[in-house]
Every structure is written in structure tokens, then in C-alpha cells.
Specification:
476 residues; Catalase HpII,  Chain A, domain 1; 2 domains; catalase activity; Catalase_clade1/3; oxidoreductase; EC 1.11.1.6
């Protein structure tokens, strides 16, 4: 029985040979998180506070699917009657660890679902939109929310200077400055995936989707004056409220709902449906009930289970995918990279981040690698020793981008790998060829015969004399 290779999140890999490019000879796309994962892990094979969303609270719970949406997705986690354990972390965006909870700010709403197909992370906010639509501007925006480099004080001037020069921020600024910018508690906010994602069904049809979690406690907010009074008495007001309510058995709940847009509808849409500063009008794309989310368990150790909890939109399962959203594309890279820096190279080995499925990768060594793998000769890929392999069954449909497709193009299919080595071989005189044959034979000392024979066949495709010369030098 073959073993399917996976990402560190336990998600099966369909192709471990070819990166995703825009066209056969086009550039590599940032959404190729499997490529990024491999390169980033390699860079760290030889460990601070989150840059944003540093101050947060979390709880475990469950997602129960009550409706049938199988016509949109094959993801097992979204099939009717499925029940999945989850971790939900709430946070403020700008404040450092220890900052007051009752501040006017966007609230993070980050979910980790421990599914039977690997982890699915949905990293969103309590708002359906954001301040910028291109990640190129994200570091600039966050600088305005942090402290002035000289005074070390938060600067209203910096925030409003940036916003006044960035009209795309108007939607989010209006929400932030409304009563929803100061929630009464984490229990009284909605959660949104915010980005546009893909749902893919058994027919390999793609639908664009928006994820919504509507609080069943109702939206409740406080005023600036009320917030000042709360902060003066309790800087951890939201943390206290969440922990105590769950501890008392008053489990908060959210209604899980989605919006769906077909690929044809997206092409005809009057605005860019992948723009993070825009919402999809409910009148055009109505809400569809999916299930219910409940929080029912407090973490036992804050540092282990909340501070080290690491969420990334790159963690998806079969049946859930990405979109051309520029901010999402960048977050696919930046979140795991931040975790590797902040927590450690093998952060997904930690219990709070570890998927409930077997993880089968070829990542090696590096900080925090406490996994004891079976001794094997299969520590690279491809190999001849029954190591984990790719599985084309998990390949997504190609994504059309104008007049080309984003997919994993087979780099061997249209390439001639023999004529140039043949030309080089033919330039060699007889003495040089004999040296070549001998060098190869000595380098093959101890190599199994089946591997030697496979290599000889490749040499034969260059030139029969090449194959026979090595064979003779090997004495076979």
C-alpha cells in the first residue's frame, strides 16, 4: 500500500516535481505554498512576540456541519454530520502582549480545524474587509499602528496620514470607527474568513466562497468612555470574560455560513471579487447555512496552547483552495515564515499545531525537531526505498488566468535531457571517455544493481557507447 507524501500540516501532495507557474514557461506563483514550504524548511535545517495580533485569547471547541453542501465541496470537514475539533484564537491587531483588551481595534478570528485530512486553518478577523488590498502595502500599514521610532508612542497622525493617502482603506476605517470597533467581548463578535477561497467538489468543479461565523450571542459593543473605565480596572477584560464563561459551562456559539460565487459569475462581477476591501452583496450572493461552531474547553497552558499556536491560510485540505486575492497569496507565504522564525522551524510538531493525521515529509533536522522517525534509506525523494510519494488524486483543477492556466507543469514532458550531454560526450577523446567510465564505476561502489541498471538505461539514451563503457568498467 503506497504512502502518500504530505505537507507538514498533513495535507496530501499531488506533485512533488513541478512548481506552479503562470504558463508552461511563465514565472512561479506565490500561492505554491508547497514549494515555499520546501525552500523555507531547507533554509532553516542548520530559535518572540507576534508582529501583529500579539495580544490574544483562545479556546477549543467543535464544528458540526448540519447542512449538505457536497455540491460545492468534497472536503470531508464540510460534509453533513461531520464533527471536527478546533482551536479559535481571538486577538487585537496593534497591541503588544499585555496591551489592554478593551481598545478600539480590529479583532483577529483565527481557526485551526483538526480534520481527518490534515489541518485546515482559517485566519480571519471580525470584519469582512481589510485596510489594504495589496500585501505590498501591509508592512507600511502595520508600521502606522505600532509605535513611533523616536517617542515610542502610538501615533494618531501616522494612522490617519496613511488612511488619508489610501482610499482603499475607507471601508475598513468606517467599520473600525463605528460601534463595532469596540466589542463588548470576544463572544459578541462575528468572524470572517475575509478572503475569497475556493471550494472544489467531486467533479473537480471550482466555486468561489466567503466564510462567515455569526455570533449567536448577538453583536454587543461598548463606547469609548465605557472602554476607558474598563481598562482602568481590568486590562484583560476579554480574556477574563471568555475563560470564565467557558469555565462556567456558558459555551459561546457561532452560526457557520457561506456565500458562493461561480467562476462565470466572478467574470461578470461589477467589482473584483478577490479584492479584500470589498464585500459580496448578500442580495446577489445570499448566505447559505452550513453548521454551528461551539467553544467548550479552555486551554490548560496558555504558553503551550495559545502563545505557540500557529495559524496559516496555507493549511488547506482537499476540497478547499485559494483564489487570486493578492493579500491571501502573500499571507500563504508570510504566515508560515513568521512561525518558523517566531516559534521554530518545526513549529507544527508542537501538540497544539500538530495534525491528527500522520505527517510524512522529507524535511530534515533544524530547530525543534523532536520527531523520532523510523530508520530508513528513504530520506529524499524520488527514491527506490518505499518512501512517501505524491498522489495525483489530490491535484486541483487548473486555475484559468486570462489566456493561460496556473498549474504544475511537468518540466520533463517537453524537455530534451539527452542531446546536450550527447554533444559533450562526443567532444571527449577516447582517453577522456575511459576516465569518465572509471570515475562513474568507482562512484557507484555499493549501489544496488537495480539502481545501477536504471542509470545505465539513461546513459544509453545519450549514446550506446556511454552505457557499454560504464557497464564494462563496472564489470557487469
Amino acid at each position: 500500500m503506497k504512502k502518500t507524501m504530505t505537507t507538514t500540516a498533513g495535507n496530501p501532495i499531488s506533485d512533488n516535481q513541478n512548481s506552479i507557474t503562470a504558463g508552461e514557461r511563465g514565472p512561479v506563483l506565490m500561492q505554491d505554498y508547497q514549494l515555499i514550504e520546501k525552500l523555507a524548511h531547507q533554509n532553516r535545517e542548520r530559535i518572540p512576540e507576534r508582529v501583529v495580533h500579539a495580544n490574544g485569547s483562545a479556546a477549543y471547541g467543535k464544528l458540526v456541519i448540519t447542512e449538505d453542501i457536497s455540491k460545492y465541496t468534497k472536503a470531508k470537514v464540510l460534509q453533513k454530520s461531520e464533527e471536527t475539533k478546533l482551536l479559535l484564537r481571538f486577538s487585537t491587531v496593534a497591541g503588544e502582549r499585555g496591551a489592554a483588551d478593551a481598545e478600539r481595534d480590529v479583532r483577529g478570528f483565527a481557526l485551526k480545524f483538526y480534520t481527518k485530512e490534515g489541518n485546515w486553518d482559517l485566519v480571519g478577523n471580525n470584519t469582512p474587509v481589510f485596510f489594504v488590498r495589496d500585501a505590498y502595502k501591509f508592512p507600511d500599514f502595520i508600521h502606522t499602528q505600532k509605535r513611533h521610532p523616536q517617542t515610542n508612542l502610538r501615533s494618531n497622525t501616522a494612522a490617519w496620514d496613511f488612511w488619508s493617502l489610501s482610499p482603499e482603506s475607507l471601508h475598513q476605517v468606517t467599520i473600525l470607527m463605528s460601534n463595532r470597533g469596540l466589542p463588548k467581548s470576544y463572544r459578541h463578535i462575528n468572524g470572517y474568513g475575509s478572503h475569497t477561497y475556493s471550494l472544489i467538489n467531486e467533479k473537480n468543479e471550482r466555486f468561489w466562497v466567503k466564510f462567515h461565523f455569526k455570533t449567536m450571542q448577538g453583536i454587543e459593543t461598548i463606547t469609548d468612555k465605557e472602554a476607558e473605565e474598563i481598562v482602568g480596572k481590568d486590562r484583560e477584560s476579554n480574556q477574563r470574560d471568555l475563560f470564565e464563561n467557558i469555565n462556567q459551562g456558558n459555551y459561546p456559539k457561532w452560526s457557520f455560513e457561506i456565500q458562493i460565487m461561480t467562476e462565470e459569475e466572478a467574470l461578470a462581477c461589477s467589482f473584483n471579487p478577490f479584492d479584500l476591501t470589498k464585500v459580496w452583496p448578500h442580495s446577489d450572493y445570499p448566505m447559505i447555512k452550513v453548521g454551528e461552531l461551539t467553544l467548550n474547553e479552555n486551554p490548560k497552558n496558555y504558553f503551550n496552547e495559545v502563545e505557540q499556536a500557529s495559524f496559516s491560510p496555507s493549511n488547506v485540505v482537499a476540497g478547499i483552495g485559494f483564489s487570486p486575492d493578492k493579500m491571501l497569496q502573500a499571507r500563504i507565504f508570510s504566515y508560515p515564515d513568521a512561525h518558523r522564525y517566531r516559534v521554530g522551524t518545526h513549529y507544527e510538531m508542537l501538540p497544539v499545531n500538530r495534525p491528527i493525521v500522520d505527517v510524512k515529509t522529507y524535511h530534515a533536522d533544524g530547530a525543534m525537531n523532536y520527531d523520532q522517525k523510523d530508520i530508513s534509506d528513504a530520506y529524499y525523494e524520488p527514491n527506490s526505498f518505499d518512501g512517501p510519494v505524491e498522489d495525483k488524486a489530490f491535484e486541483e483543477p487548473a486555475l484559468k488566468i486570462e489566456d493561460t492556466y496556473a498549474k504544475r507543469y511537468d518540466h520533463r514532458e517537453s524537455n530534451d535531457d539527452f542531446s546536450q550531454p550527447r554533444a559533450l560526450f562526443n567532444l571527449m577523446n577516447e582517453n577522456e571517455k575511459e576516465q569518465l567510465f572509471g570515475n562513474i564505476a568507482r562512484a557507484m561502489d555499493g549501489v544496488p544493481l537495480n539502481i545501477i541498471n536504471r542509470q545505465l538505461e539513461l546513459f544509453g539514451k545519450i549514446d550506446k557507447a556511454y552505457k557499454m563503457g560504464v557497464k564494462k568498467a563496472l564489470g557487469i
